[in-house]
Specification:
The structure is a homotetramer of 136-residue chains.
Chain A (H helix, E strand, L loop, with lengths): L1 E8 L13 H18 L4 H6 L2 E2 L2 E8 L8 E8 L6 E9 L5 E10 L1 E2 L10 H12 L1
Antiparallel strand pairs in A: 1-4, 2-7, 3-6, 4-5, 5-6
Protein backbone atom coordinates (compact mmCIF):
# COMPACT_ATOMS: atom_id res chain seq x y z
CA UNK A 1 0.00 0.00 0.00
CA UNK A 2 1.20 3.51 -0.81
CA UNK A 3 0.05 6.32 1.47
CA UNK A 4 0.55 10.08 1.58
CA UNK A 5 -0.77 12.99 3.66
CA UNK A 6 -1.31 16.52 2.38
CA UNK A 7 -2.25 19.53 4.51
CA UNK A 8 -4.67 22.03 3.00
CA UNK A 9 -5.71 25.31 4.63
CA UNK A 10 -9.32 25.99 3.57
CA UNK A 11 -9.51 29.22 1.53
CA UNK A 12 -12.44 31.62 1.91
CA UNK A 13 -13.31 31.22 -1.76
CA UNK A 14 -13.96 27.50 -1.23
CA UNK A 15 -16.70 27.97 1.37
CA UNK A 16 -20.39 28.56 0.73
CA UNK A 17 -23.23 30.41 2.47
CA UNK A 18 -23.72 27.42 4.81
CA UNK A 19 -20.16 28.20 5.95
CA UNK A 20 -19.14 24.76 4.65
CA UNK A 21 -16.48 23.93 2.09
CA UNK A 22 -18.52 23.50 -1.08
CA UNK A 23 -18.53 19.80 -1.97
CA UNK A 24 -17.08 20.37 -5.47
CA UNK A 25 -13.86 21.66 -3.93
CA UNK A 26 -12.93 18.34 -2.32
CA UNK A 27 -12.57 16.98 -5.84
CA UNK A 28 -9.80 19.52 -6.38
CA UNK A 29 -8.21 18.71 -3.01
CA UNK A 30 -8.16 15.02 -3.96
CA UNK A 31 -6.38 15.87 -7.22
CA UNK A 32 -3.75 17.77 -5.24
CA UNK A 33 -3.50 14.77 -2.90
CA UNK A 34 -2.60 12.35 -5.67
CA UNK A 35 -0.18 14.80 -7.33
CA UNK A 36 1.70 15.12 -4.04
CA UNK A 37 1.59 11.35 -3.43
CA UNK A 38 3.24 10.90 -6.85
CA UNK A 39 5.84 13.56 -6.05
CA UNK A 40 6.66 12.01 -2.68
CA UNK A 41 7.52 8.74 -4.44
CA UNK A 42 9.70 10.30 -7.13
CA UNK A 43 7.05 10.63 -9.83
CA UNK A 44 5.73 13.83 -11.32
CA UNK A 45 2.39 14.02 -13.08
CA UNK A 46 3.70 16.86 -15.23
CA UNK A 47 6.52 14.64 -16.51
CA UNK A 48 4.08 11.79 -17.15
CA UNK A 49 1.94 14.11 -19.24
CA UNK A 50 4.94 15.47 -21.11
CA UNK A 51 5.93 11.90 -21.97
CA UNK A 52 2.64 11.59 -23.87
CA UNK A 53 0.48 9.95 -21.21
CA UNK A 54 -2.58 11.58 -19.68
CA UNK A 55 -4.64 10.38 -16.73
CA UNK A 56 -8.36 11.11 -17.10
CA UNK A 57 -10.77 10.35 -14.26
CA UNK A 58 -13.08 7.38 -14.92
CA UNK A 59 -15.19 7.52 -11.79
CA UNK A 60 -15.41 9.09 -8.38
CA UNK A 61 -17.46 8.53 -5.28
CA UNK A 62 -17.41 10.59 -2.13
CA UNK A 63 -19.20 10.13 1.19
CA UNK A 64 -19.53 13.30 3.24
CA UNK A 65 -19.66 12.73 6.98
CA UNK A 66 -18.84 16.14 8.47
CA UNK A 67 -18.32 19.59 6.98
CA UNK A 68 -15.10 21.61 6.86
CA UNK A 69 -15.14 25.33 7.53
CA UNK A 70 -13.13 28.36 6.44
CA UNK A 71 -9.57 28.34 7.75
CA UNK A 72 -9.70 24.69 8.85
CA UNK A 73 -6.40 22.88 8.39
CA UNK A 74 -7.32 19.69 6.58
CA UNK A 75 -5.30 16.53 6.18
CA UNK A 76 -6.05 14.73 2.93
CA UNK A 77 -4.80 11.14 3.15
CA UNK A 78 -4.35 9.46 -0.22
CA UNK A 79 -3.94 5.70 -0.56
CA UNK A 80 -3.18 3.30 -3.41
CA UNK A 81 -4.06 -0.13 -2.03
CA UNK A 82 -3.93 -2.18 -5.24
CA UNK A 83 -1.04 -2.25 -7.70
CA UNK A 84 -2.10 -0.10 -10.66
CA UNK A 85 -2.37 -1.50 -14.17
CA UNK A 86 -4.28 0.38 -16.84
CA UNK A 87 -6.38 1.80 -14.01
CA UNK A 88 -5.30 3.31 -10.70
CA UNK A 89 -7.66 3.55 -7.77
CA UNK A 90 -6.93 6.34 -5.31
CA UNK A 91 -8.69 6.16 -1.96
CA UNK A 92 -9.04 9.17 0.31
CA UNK A 93 -9.78 10.16 3.86
CA UNK A 94 -10.05 13.83 4.81
CA UNK A 95 -9.61 14.89 8.42
CA UNK A 96 -9.84 18.30 10.06
CA UNK A 97 -7.41 19.74 12.62
CA UNK A 98 -9.29 18.00 15.44
CA UNK A 99 -8.77 14.57 13.86
CA UNK A 100 -12.44 14.32 12.86
CA UNK A 101 -13.03 12.29 9.68
CA UNK A 102 -14.84 14.57 7.22
CA UNK A 103 -15.21 12.35 4.19
CA UNK A 104 -13.96 9.30 2.34
CA UNK A 105 -13.59 8.89 -1.39
CA UNK A 106 -12.55 6.56 -4.20
CA UNK A 107 -11.37 8.01 -7.49
CA UNK A 108 -10.38 5.80 -10.41
CA UNK A 109 -8.15 7.12 -13.18
CA UNK A 110 -6.57 5.38 -16.13
CA UNK A 111 -3.41 5.87 -18.12
CA UNK A 112 -4.22 7.08 -21.65
CA UNK A 113 -2.04 7.75 -24.70
CA UNK A 114 -2.35 11.46 -25.45
CA UNK A 115 -2.18 10.95 -29.22
CA UNK A 116 -4.68 8.11 -29.60
CA UNK A 117 -6.83 8.79 -26.48
CA UNK A 118 -6.66 5.01 -25.87
CA UNK A 119 -6.18 3.50 -22.42
CA UNK A 120 -2.70 2.03 -21.91
CA UNK A 121 -0.38 0.54 -19.30
CA UNK A 122 1.64 3.00 -17.21
CA UNK A 123 4.91 4.22 -18.73
CA UNK A 124 7.88 2.03 -17.79
CA UNK A 125 9.42 4.43 -15.22
CA UNK A 126 6.08 4.82 -13.44
CA UNK A 127 5.41 1.06 -13.52
CA UNK A 128 8.85 0.31 -12.10
CA UNK A 129 8.61 2.74 -9.18
CA UNK A 130 5.10 1.60 -8.27
CA UNK A 131 6.01 -2.06 -8.61
CA UNK A 132 8.95 -1.65 -6.22
CA UNK A 133 6.77 0.14 -3.71
CA UNK A 134 4.26 -2.71 -3.76
CA UNK A 135 6.96 -5.34 -3.31
CA UNK A 136 8.15 -3.78 -0.06
CA UNK B 1 -40.52 10.50 -11.52
CA UNK B 2 -39.54 14.14 -11.84
CA UNK B 3 -37.24 15.11 -14.70
CA UNK B 4 -35.62 18.33 -15.90
CA UNK B 5 -33.12 19.34 -18.60
CA UNK B 6 -30.65 22.21 -18.31
CA UNK B 7 -28.41 23.47 -21.10
CA UNK B 8 -24.90 24.57 -20.15
CA UNK B 9 -22.39 26.15 -22.54
CA UNK B 10 -18.92 25.01 -21.43
CA UNK B 11 -16.82 28.04 -20.36
CA UNK B 12 -13.11 28.26 -21.15
CA UNK B 13 -12.29 28.48 -17.44
CA UNK B 14 -13.82 25.03 -16.87
CA UNK B 15 -11.49 23.18 -19.24
CA UNK B 16 -8.02 21.84 -18.47
CA UNK B 17 -4.79 21.27 -20.41
CA UNK B 18 -6.21 17.99 -21.79
CA UNK B 19 -8.85 20.20 -23.41
CA UNK B 20 -11.47 18.41 -21.28
CA UNK B 21 -13.93 19.91 -18.82
CA UNK B 22 -12.18 19.34 -15.50
CA UNK B 23 -14.10 16.65 -13.62
CA UNK B 24 -14.71 18.86 -10.55
CA UNK B 25 -16.84 21.20 -12.65
CA UNK B 26 -19.55 18.63 -13.35
CA UNK B 27 -20.29 18.73 -9.63
CA UNK B 28 -21.18 22.40 -10.06
CA UNK B 29 -23.24 21.66 -13.18
CA UNK B 30 -25.21 19.04 -11.24
CA UNK B 31 -25.94 21.59 -8.52
CA UNK B 32 -27.28 23.98 -11.15
CA UNK B 33 -29.32 21.09 -12.58
CA UNK B 34 -31.14 20.43 -9.32
CA UNK B 35 -31.69 24.15 -8.62
CA UNK B 36 -33.37 24.50 -12.03
CA UNK B 37 -35.40 21.29 -11.55
CA UNK B 38 -36.71 22.77 -8.29
CA UNK B 39 -37.52 26.08 -10.01
CA UNK B 40 -39.32 24.34 -12.86
CA UNK B 41 -41.66 22.71 -10.35
CA UNK B 42 -42.40 25.89 -8.40
CA UNK B 43 -39.80 25.47 -5.69
CA UNK B 44 -36.83 27.70 -5.04
CA UNK B 45 -33.78 26.54 -3.13
CA UNK B 46 -33.16 30.09 -1.97
CA UNK B 47 -36.62 30.22 -0.36
CA UNK B 48 -36.06 26.83 1.24
CA UNK B 49 -32.83 28.08 2.77
CA UNK B 50 -34.46 31.32 3.93
CA UNK B 51 -37.15 29.26 5.66
CA UNK B 52 -34.40 27.77 7.85
CA UNK B 53 -33.72 24.54 5.95
CA UNK B 54 -30.39 23.75 4.28
CA UNK B 55 -29.58 20.85 1.98
CA UNK B 56 -26.04 19.52 2.44
CA UNK B 57 -24.68 16.81 0.13
CA UNK B 58 -24.30 13.39 1.79
CA UNK B 59 -22.73 11.47 -1.08
CA UNK B 60 -21.99 11.64 -4.76
CA UNK B 61 -20.83 9.21 -7.38
CA UNK B 62 -20.03 10.01 -10.98
CA UNK B 63 -19.07 7.75 -13.89
CA UNK B 64 -17.24 9.51 -16.68
CA UNK B 65 -17.76 7.95 -20.12
CA UNK B 66 -16.72 10.68 -22.55
CA UNK B 67 -15.16 14.12 -22.14
CA UNK B 68 -16.74 17.49 -22.86
CA UNK B 69 -14.74 20.24 -24.55
CA UNK B 70 -14.69 24.03 -24.50
CA UNK B 71 -17.80 25.58 -26.05
CA UNK B 72 -19.75 22.30 -26.08
CA UNK B 73 -23.45 22.78 -25.42
CA UNK B 74 -24.26 20.27 -22.72
CA UNK B 75 -27.62 18.97 -21.61
CA UNK B 76 -27.70 18.05 -17.94
CA UNK B 77 -30.71 15.82 -17.25
CA UNK B 78 -31.71 15.68 -13.59
CA UNK B 79 -34.08 13.02 -12.25
CA UNK B 80 -35.78 12.33 -8.92
CA UNK B 81 -37.00 8.75 -9.19
CA UNK B 82 -37.96 8.11 -5.56
CA UNK B 83 -40.21 10.30 -3.43
CA UNK B 84 -37.90 12.26 -1.11
CA UNK B 85 -38.14 11.95 2.66
CA UNK B 86 -35.30 13.16 4.85
CA UNK B 87 -33.02 12.34 1.91
CA UNK B 88 -33.37 13.22 -1.76
CA UNK B 89 -31.51 11.29 -4.44
CA UNK B 90 -30.83 13.22 -7.62
CA UNK B 91 -29.73 11.19 -10.65
CA UNK B 92 -28.00 12.75 -13.62
CA UNK B 93 -27.15 12.14 -17.24
CA UNK B 94 -25.01 14.64 -19.14
CA UNK B 95 -25.10 14.71 -22.93
CA UNK B 96 -23.20 16.83 -25.44
CA UNK B 97 -24.68 18.58 -28.49
CA UNK B 98 -24.29 15.39 -30.55
CA UNK B 99 -26.44 13.40 -28.11
CA UNK B 100 -23.42 11.50 -26.78
CA UNK B 101 -23.76 10.44 -23.13
CA UNK B 102 -20.80 11.96 -21.26
CA UNK B 103 -21.44 10.84 -17.71
CA UNK B 104 -23.99 9.62 -15.20
CA UNK B 105 -24.21 10.53 -11.53
CA UNK B 106 -26.10 10.04 -8.29
CA UNK B 107 -26.03 12.74 -5.65
CA UNK B 108 -27.80 12.35 -2.32
CA UNK B 109 -28.71 15.38 -0.21
CA UNK B 110 -30.72 15.69 2.96
CA UNK B 111 -32.92 18.34 4.47
CA UNK B 112 -31.29 19.84 7.56
CA UNK B 113 -32.48 22.41 10.12
CA UNK B 114 -30.17 25.41 9.83
CA UNK B 115 -30.26 26.13 13.56
CA UNK B 116 -29.69 22.64 14.92
CA UNK B 117 -27.77 21.14 11.95
CA UNK B 118 -30.02 18.08 12.39
CA UNK B 119 -31.54 16.17 9.48
CA UNK B 120 -35.27 16.74 9.10
CA UNK B 121 -38.25 16.11 6.83
CA UNK B 122 -38.78 18.56 3.96
CA UNK B 123 -40.73 21.72 4.81
CA UNK B 124 -44.48 21.36 4.27
CA UNK B 125 -44.67 23.38 1.01
CA UNK B 126 -41.83 21.37 -0.51
CA UNK B 127 -43.30 18.06 0.66
CA UNK B 128 -46.70 18.95 -0.79
CA UNK B 129 -45.42 19.91 -4.22
CA UNK B 130 -43.18 16.85 -4.48
CA UNK B 131 -45.89 14.54 -3.20
CA UNK B 132 -48.35 15.79 -5.85
CA UNK B 133 -45.77 15.31 -8.58
CA UNK B 134 -45.20 11.71 -7.51
CA UNK B 135 -48.93 10.97 -7.42
CA UNK B 136 -49.36 11.97 -11.08
CA UNK C 1 -19.26 50.32 -30.43
CA UNK C 2 -20.16 46.67 -30.07
CA UNK C 3 -22.40 45.67 -27.17
CA UNK C 4 -23.84 42.43 -25.85
CA UNK C 5 -25.88 41.33 -22.82
CA UNK C 6 -25.62 37.95 -21.14
CA UNK C 7 -27.87 36.68 -18.36
CA UNK C 8 -26.28 34.62 -15.61
CA UNK C 9 -28.15 32.92 -12.77
CA UNK C 10 -25.86 32.95 -9.72
CA UNK C 11 -25.03 29.36 -8.68
CA UNK C 12 -24.76 28.39 -5.00
CA UNK C 13 -21.14 27.32 -5.51
CA UNK C 14 -20.20 30.88 -6.50
CA UNK C 15 -21.29 32.49 -3.22
CA UNK C 16 -19.27 32.78 -0.04
CA UNK C 17 -20.02 32.89 3.70
CA UNK C 18 -20.88 36.59 3.42
CA UNK C 19 -23.68 35.41 1.11
CA UNK C 20 -22.02 37.40 -1.69
CA UNK C 21 -20.80 36.14 -5.06
CA UNK C 22 -17.08 35.66 -4.42
CA UNK C 23 -15.21 38.35 -6.37
CA UNK C 24 -13.09 35.85 -8.33
CA UNK C 25 -16.21 34.51 -10.02
CA UNK C 26 -16.99 37.74 -11.85
CA UNK C 27 -13.78 37.18 -13.78
CA UNK C 28 -15.32 33.97 -15.12
CA UNK C 29 -18.63 35.72 -15.86
CA UNK C 30 -16.74 38.36 -17.87
CA UNK C 31 -15.06 35.64 -19.89
CA UNK C 32 -18.46 34.15 -20.68
CA UNK C 33 -19.65 37.66 -21.60
CA UNK C 34 -16.98 38.16 -24.25
CA UNK C 35 -17.41 34.63 -25.64
CA UNK C 36 -21.13 35.31 -26.13
CA UNK C 37 -20.47 38.77 -27.59
CA UNK C 38 -18.19 37.11 -30.14
CA UNK C 39 -20.81 34.46 -30.92
CA UNK C 40 -23.56 37.05 -31.35
CA UNK C 41 -21.48 38.75 -34.05
CA UNK C 42 -20.66 35.56 -35.95
CA UNK C 43 -17.31 34.85 -34.34
CA UNK C 44 -16.42 31.88 -32.21
CA UNK C 45 -13.51 31.90 -29.81
CA UNK C 46 -13.13 28.16 -30.23
CA UNK C 47 -12.64 28.59 -34.00
CA UNK C 48 -10.16 31.42 -33.41
CA UNK C 49 -8.13 29.16 -31.14
CA UNK C 50 -8.31 26.26 -33.60
CA UNK C 51 -6.97 28.59 -36.30
CA UNK C 52 -3.81 28.95 -34.20
CA UNK C 53 -4.58 32.20 -32.38
CA UNK C 54 -4.99 32.43 -28.61
CA UNK C 55 -6.18 35.40 -26.58
CA UNK C 56 -4.43 35.72 -23.23
CA UNK C 57 -5.51 38.37 -20.74
CA UNK C 58 -3.04 41.25 -20.31
CA UNK C 59 -4.77 43.19 -17.57
CA UNK C 60 -8.02 43.49 -15.70
CA UNK C 61 -9.55 45.98 -13.35
CA UNK C 62 -12.84 45.67 -11.55
CA UNK C 63 -14.70 48.11 -9.30
CA UNK C 64 -17.22 46.47 -6.99
CA UNK C 65 -20.17 48.70 -6.06
CA UNK C 66 -22.78 46.27 -4.78
CA UNK C 67 -22.79 42.53 -4.07
CA UNK C 68 -24.74 39.83 -5.91
CA UNK C 69 -26.41 37.03 -3.97
CA UNK C 70 -27.27 33.40 -4.60
CA UNK C 71 -29.97 32.95 -7.24
CA UNK C 72 -29.76 36.55 -8.48
CA UNK C 73 -30.31 36.87 -12.21
CA UNK C 74 -27.41 39.00 -13.41
CA UNK C 75 -27.03 40.86 -16.67
CA UNK C 76 -23.42 41.12 -17.79
CA UNK C 77 -23.10 43.86 -20.42
CA UNK C 78 -19.95 43.59 -22.53
CA UNK C 79 -18.73 46.45 -24.68
CA UNK C 80 -15.96 46.96 -27.23
CA UNK C 81 -15.67 50.73 -27.63
CA UNK C 82 -12.43 50.94 -29.60
CA UNK C 83 -11.63 49.03 -32.78
CA UNK C 84 -9.29 46.20 -31.77
CA UNK C 85 -5.80 45.86 -33.17
CA UNK C 86 -3.25 43.63 -31.48
CA UNK C 87 -5.14 44.35 -28.25
CA UNK C 88 -8.85 44.26 -27.53
CA UNK C 89 -10.33 46.11 -24.59
CA UNK C 90 -13.57 44.66 -23.23
CA UNK C 91 -15.56 46.86 -20.87
CA UNK C 92 -18.20 45.47 -18.55
CA UNK C 93 -21.17 46.49 -16.46
CA UNK C 94 -22.94 43.91 -14.30
CA UNK C 95 -26.52 44.54 -13.14
CA UNK C 96 -28.80 42.49 -10.92
CA UNK C 97 -32.48 41.73 -11.60
CA UNK C 98 -33.52 45.05 -10.00
CA UNK C 99 -31.38 47.04 -12.44
CA UNK C 100 -28.81 47.88 -9.75
CA UNK C 101 -25.26 48.32 -11.08
CA UNK C 102 -23.07 45.83 -9.22
CA UNK C 103 -19.68 46.41 -10.79
CA UNK C 104 -17.77 47.75 -13.77
CA UNK C 105 -14.66 46.30 -15.34
CA UNK C 106 -12.07 46.66 -18.08
CA UNK C 107 -10.26 43.60 -19.35
CA UNK C 108 -7.58 43.83 -22.03
CA UNK C 109 -6.64 40.80 -24.10
CA UNK C 110 -4.33 40.43 -27.05
CA UNK C 111 -4.21 38.18 -30.07
CA UNK C 112 -1.25 35.79 -29.83
CA UNK C 113 0.15 33.18 -32.24
CA UNK C 114 -0.20 29.80 -30.51
CA UNK C 115 3.06 28.48 -31.97
CA UNK C 116 5.33 31.43 -31.26
CA UNK C 117 3.49 32.91 -28.23
CA UNK C 118 4.03 36.32 -29.93
CA UNK C 119 1.36 39.02 -30.05
CA UNK C 120 -0.20 39.46 -33.50
CA UNK C 121 -2.99 41.19 -35.39
CA UNK C 122 -6.40 39.49 -35.36
CA UNK C 123 -6.94 36.81 -38.01
CA UNK C 124 -8.43 38.17 -41.24
CA UNK C 125 -11.99 36.88 -40.69
CA UNK C 126 -12.09 38.38 -37.21
CA UNK C 127 -10.61 41.66 -38.36
CA UNK C 128 -13.14 41.92 -41.20
CA UNK C 129 -16.21 41.29 -39.05
CA UNK C 130 -15.06 43.69 -36.35
CA UNK C 131 -14.09 46.35 -38.86
CA UNK C 132 -17.53 46.23 -40.49
CA UNK C 133 -19.20 46.52 -37.09
CA UNK C 134 -17.18 49.62 -36.29
CA UNK C 135 -17.99 51.24 -39.64
CA UNK C 136 -21.74 51.03 -38.99
CA UNK D 1 5.44 48.35 5.17
CA UNK D 2 4.17 44.87 5.93
CA UNK D 3 5.27 42.07 3.61
CA UNK D 4 4.60 38.35 3.38
CA UNK D 5 5.47 35.53 0.95
CA UNK D 6 3.26 32.51 0.26
CA UNK D 7 4.23 29.51 -1.86
CA UNK D 8 1.54 27.97 -4.05
CA UNK D 9 1.96 24.83 -6.12
CA UNK D 10 -0.19 25.25 -9.25
CA UNK D 11 -2.94 22.56 -9.32
CA UNK D 12 -4.00 20.92 -12.58
CA UNK D 13 -7.56 22.17 -12.10
CA UNK D 14 -6.34 25.78 -12.23
CA UNK D 15 -4.83 25.56 -15.73
CA UNK D 16 -6.62 25.99 -19.02
CA UNK D 17 -6.26 24.63 -22.57
CA UNK D 18 -3.49 27.18 -23.27
CA UNK D 19 -1.60 25.37 -20.48
CA UNK D 20 -1.70 28.63 -18.49
CA UNK D 21 -3.11 29.22 -15.03
CA UNK D 22 -6.52 30.70 -15.81
CA UNK D 23 -6.44 34.38 -14.87
CA UNK D 24 -9.41 34.10 -12.47
CA UNK D 25 -7.40 31.82 -10.22
CA UNK D 26 -4.82 34.45 -9.30
CA UNK D 27 -7.65 36.30 -7.57
CA UNK D 28 -8.00 33.28 -5.26
CA UNK D 29 -4.22 33.09 -4.77
CA UNK D 30 -4.20 36.76 -3.75
CA UNK D 31 -6.91 36.08 -1.18
CA UNK D 32 -4.80 33.28 0.28
CA UNK D 33 -1.84 35.66 0.26
CA UNK D 34 -3.55 38.24 2.44
CA UNK D 35 -5.00 35.60 4.81
CA UNK D 36 -1.50 34.26 5.40
CA UNK D 37 -0.04 37.77 5.78
CA UNK D 38 -2.65 38.40 8.49
CA UNK D 39 -1.82 35.09 10.19
CA UNK D 40 1.92 35.78 10.11
CA UNK D 41 1.33 39.01 12.05
CA UNK D 42 -0.93 37.46 14.68
CA UNK D 43 -4.25 38.26 13.07
CA UNK D 44 -6.79 35.79 11.77
CA UNK D 45 -9.42 36.72 9.22
CA UNK D 46 -11.74 34.09 10.64
CA UNK D 47 -11.58 35.73 14.09
CA UNK D 48 -12.16 39.16 12.53
CA UNK D 49 -15.28 37.83 10.81
CA UNK D 50 -16.50 36.13 13.99
CA UNK D 51 -16.14 39.45 15.82
CA UNK D 52 -18.76 40.88 13.45
CA UNK D 53 -16.49 42.52 10.86
CA UNK D 54 -16.34 41.43 7.21
CA UNK D 55 -13.91 42.58 4.55
CA UNK D 56 -15.48 42.84 1.11
CA UNK D 57 -13.34 43.67 -1.94
CA UNK D 58 -13.89 47.17 -3.34
CA UNK D 59 -11.61 47.01 -6.37
CA UNK D 60 -8.89 44.96 -7.97
CA UNK D 61 -6.47 45.44 -10.79
CA UNK D 62 -4.03 42.92 -12.14
CA UNK D 63 -1.33 43.20 -14.81
CA UNK D 64 -0.33 39.91 -16.36
CA UNK D 65 3.26 39.81 -17.61
CA UNK D 66 4.03 36.09 -17.94
CA UNK D 67 1.96 32.93 -17.59
CA UNK D 68 2.27 30.25 -14.91
CA UNK D 69 1.98 26.58 -15.84
CA UNK D 70 0.78 23.40 -14.16
CA UNK D 71 3.02 22.33 -11.27
CA UNK D 72 4.91 25.65 -11.13
CA UNK D 73 5.86 26.64 -7.60
CA UNK D 74 4.69 30.22 -7.27
CA UNK D 75 5.65 32.83 -4.71
CA UNK D 76 2.87 35.29 -4.02
CA UNK D 77 4.29 38.36 -2.30
CA UNK D 78 1.71 40.44 -0.46
CA UNK D 79 2.42 43.99 0.70
CA UNK D 80 0.59 46.60 2.76
CA UNK D 81 2.44 49.85 2.11
CA UNK D 82 0.01 52.33 3.64
CA UNK D 83 -1.43 52.12 7.13
CA UNK D 84 -5.01 50.87 6.76
CA UNK D 85 -7.97 52.89 7.91
CA UNK D 86 -11.47 52.03 6.69
CA UNK D 87 -9.78 50.70 3.57
CA UNK D 88 -6.78 48.40 3.21
CA UNK D 89 -4.78 48.24 0.00
CA UNK D 90 -2.99 44.97 -0.62
CA UNK D 91 -0.32 44.96 -3.32
CA UNK D 92 0.93 41.78 -4.94
CA UNK D 93 3.79 40.40 -6.97
CA UNK D 94 3.68 36.80 -8.18
CA UNK D 95 6.90 35.04 -9.14
CA UNK D 96 7.53 31.55 -10.51
CA UNK D 97 10.25 29.13 -9.34
CA UNK D 98 12.76 30.76 -11.71
CA UNK D 99 12.26 34.19 -10.11
CA UNK D 100 10.34 35.47 -13.13
CA UNK D 101 7.74 38.13 -12.28
CA UNK D 102 4.40 36.82 -13.56
CA UNK D 103 2.02 39.57 -12.50
CA UNK D 104 1.41 42.50 -10.18
CA UNK D 105 -1.85 43.47 -8.54
CA UNK D 106 -3.59 45.92 -6.24
CA UNK D 107 -6.66 44.84 -4.32
CA UNK D 108 -8.55 47.22 -2.05
CA UNK D 109 -10.81 45.90 0.70
CA UNK D 110 -12.68 47.68 3.43
CA UNK D 111 -13.76 46.82 6.94
CA UNK D 112 -17.54 46.46 7.14
CA UNK D 113 -19.92 45.84 10.04
CA UNK D 114 -21.61 42.50 9.37
CA UNK D 115 -24.93 43.62 10.86
CA UNK D 116 -25.29 46.99 9.16
CA UNK D 117 -23.21 46.34 6.03
CA UNK D 118 -21.65 49.77 6.65
CA UNK D 119 -17.94 50.50 6.23
CA UNK D 120 -16.13 50.96 9.53
CA UNK D 121 -12.69 51.35 11.09
CA UNK D 122 -10.78 48.14 11.84
CA UNK D 123 -11.56 46.45 15.17
CA UNK D 124 -9.32 47.62 18.01
CA UNK D 125 -7.07 44.52 18.16
CA UNK D 126 -6.47 44.67 14.40
CA UNK D 127 -5.81 48.42 14.48
CA UNK D 128 -3.34 48.03 17.34
CA UNK D 129 -1.29 45.27 15.70
CA UNK D 130 -1.17 47.05 12.35
CA UNK D 131 -0.34 50.37 13.94
CA UNK D 132 2.62 48.87 15.82
CA UNK D 133 3.90 47.23 12.64
CA UNK D 134 3.82 50.57 10.83
CA UNK D 135 5.65 52.34 13.66
CA UNK D 136 8.61 49.98 13.43
Amino acid sequence: MIEHSLNIRVPYADTDPMGFVHHANYVRYFENGRAELFRAFGLNYKDIEESGIQMPVLSMQVKFLNPAFYDDLLTVKTFIREEPRVRVKFEYETYNQHGLLLNTAEIVLCFMKKETKKACFPPENVRKIISELFQK
